[in-house]
Design goal:
Elements: H1 3-16, H2 19-26, H3 30-44, E1 49-51, E2 56-58, H4 60-82, E3 92-98, H5 100-117, E4 121-127, H6 134-137, E5 141-145, E6 154-161, E7 163-167, H7 169-175, E8 191-193, E9 200-201, E10 203-207, E11 210-214, E12 221-222, H8 225-233, E13 239-242, H9 243-252, E14 256-257, E15 267-273, H10 281-295
Parallel strand pairs: 3-4, 3-5, 8-12
Antiparallel strand pairs: 1-2, 5-15, 6-15, 7-13, 7-14, 8-9, 10-11
Helix pairs in contact: 1-2, 1-3, 1-4, 2-3
Length: about 300
Amino acid sequence: MDRFNAMRVFTRIVELGGFARAAEDLHMPAASVTILIKQLEAHLGVQLLHRTTRQVSPTLDGAAYYQRCVRLLADLEEAEAAFSVTRHNPRGLLRIDMPVGIGRLIVIPALPEFSARYPLIELEIGLNDRPVDLIREGVDCALRGGPTLDDSLVARPLVQLQQVTCASPGYLQQQGTPQSLADLQGHRMVEYFSSVSGKRYGLEFYIDGQLRPMELPKQVAVNSADGYLAACEAGYGLVQTPYYNVARQLRAGVLREVLEDFPVPSLPLTAMYPPQRHLSTRVRVFVDWLLELFARPGNGTSRP
């Protein structure tokens, strides 16, 4: 029995909650996964997993063994990277997840540069506006906009995304273009809501140094960034969104920025990864490249 491979299989079963999901994730036959776990339990002399028809969960011994496995596997990867050519030319699969707009408009267009620098890294990219469970879904690194709420993950700030307030020309022709916050009376907004937390987001402005919500009537609420902008373009009201997300529409005249003299909060963008991945060479070089990318002027994160 290859004990390190058995440990790797065991950790994915715990994280994914099932033998079949772990086998699919690791591209292994389901029978091989079952045999490895039986051999591992026989070798250790303890039951590691509770098996039911609905789910698989670790026993008390299994939970303790899982924590040791995660640390050992991370240490093994780092040791191999430190004493091999992969230290300078890392290889292997890197699973990353990021918001749709960030990926489509900023990261993926620049990604050939990263691939040229690290040609042996294979990228698997998930584009989601929902937060993913990095451990359960086997994601090495995720980009998240907004406050970091998960203390179990390592957080590395990347950039403060400048936001703008805008509306469609048709809406402004009908409702008038506001010149001050007082002019917002009688206007509408498009509301954004999180399908995970249920939290709802309206408009916010800094007034005398204090961040103040500005609640306006709404006809439409959406739970995706693309839908949020589509509702704005359709004339349903004002929105606030990162500049990169509307730069093309502003240049084309599909949307117009309003209330430019009234500051709105920036949106922090953070790279998140599980603690056991902090030594991964693949994760480290990717996050370092992201820091380079977002530090460059003209990358779309703020007005030119």
